[in-house]
């Protein structure tokens, strides 16, 4: 019992470190930082997680550690290409069909659409198997910041050479707040070498994909 409490305490402490690190990143003129750069900070936080022996030893089983190490062997310093992926509310509604008779407010529908935007990446990882889904969940990171120029909810896909891509989902909220959530895409059949390949990888719904120019 004492060992379980100690392990849980260790995990909570480690997660708190990563959360506090993300919060510190938002203190310096967050409104002037683009979504592109905010996403890169999430990527680097995830990179730190997969290289943290203390975090991985406290949270992953032996089988999962092997997959995490494969991620850690990748180079996440500079993306090969970055794409924006946008999904209309109409397309998201296909994932959950609302009937005319359903007593659901517009506010609740908007909230559900935001949840579905995050769930899109999880649906892809489900196709990669339970172990890959577990690793993706284990290595998820995020942050919240303010950006007056952020518009609709959107996904930024950061691709890299010879390692798993990372999807950062940006969900807008009240008072120009934006919540960013980063997830490794752990499905080998997800092709992302071009905008057209990414569109085809989201074969269950229609998405708009645009390549984003690198920012210094």
Strand order of the largest sheet: 2-5-4-3-1-6
- Main sheet specs: 6 strands, antiparallel
SS elements, strand count: 6
Q: Based on helices, strands and strand pairing, what is the structural class?
A: alpha+beta
- Proportion of strand residues: 15-25%
Helix content: 40-55%
Distance between the termini: 50 Å
Helices and strands, in order, run as HHHHEHHHEEEEHE
Commentary on this structure:
The structure is a single chain. This protein has 216 residues and is α+β, with helices and mostly antiparallel strands. 45% of the residues lie in helices and 18% in strands. It is built from eight helices and six strands. Strands 2-5-4-3-1-6 form a six-stranded antiparallel sheet, sandwiched between helices. The termini are far apart. The N terminus is likely disordered.
List keywords for this structure.
8 helices, disordered N terminus, about 45% helix, about 220 residues, single chain, 6-stranded antiparallel sheet, globular
Which secondary structure elements does this structure contain, and how are they paired or packed?
Layout: H1 2-24, H2 35-50, H3 53-59, H4 62-72, E1 81-86, H5 89-92, H6 106-126, H7 130-138, E2 141-146, E3 154-159, E4 166-172, E5 177-184, H8 195-201, E6 208-212
Antiparallel strand pairs: 1-3, 1-6, 2-5, 3-4, 4-5
């Amino acid at each position: 019992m004492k060992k379980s409490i100690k392990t849980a305490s260790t995990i909570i402490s480690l997660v708190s470190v990563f959360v506090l690190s993300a919060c510190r990143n938002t203190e310096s003129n967050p409104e002037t930082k683009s979504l592109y750069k905010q996403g890169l900070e999430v990527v680097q936080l995830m990179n730190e997680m997969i290289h943290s022996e203390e975090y991985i030893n406290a949270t992953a089983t032996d089988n999962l550690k092997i997959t995490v190490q494969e991620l850690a062997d990748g180079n996440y310093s500079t993306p090969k290409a970055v794409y924006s992926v946008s999904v209309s509310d109409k397309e998201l509604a296909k994932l959950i069909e609302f009937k005319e008779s359903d007593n659901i407010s517009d506010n609740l529908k908007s909230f559900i659409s935001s949840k579905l935007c995050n769930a899109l990446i999880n649906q892809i990882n489900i196709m990669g198997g339970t172990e890959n889904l577990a690793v993706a969940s284990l290595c998820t990171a995020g942050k919240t910041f303010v950006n007056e120029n952020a518009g609709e909810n959107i996904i930024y896909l950061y691709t890299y050479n010879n390692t798993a891509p990372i999807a950062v989902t940006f969900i807008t909220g009240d008072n120009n707040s934006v919540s960013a959530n980063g997830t490794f895409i752990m499905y080998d059949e997800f092709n992302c070498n071009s905008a057209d390949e990414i569109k085809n990888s989201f074969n269950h719904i229609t998405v708009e994909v645009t390549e984003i120019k690198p920012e210094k």
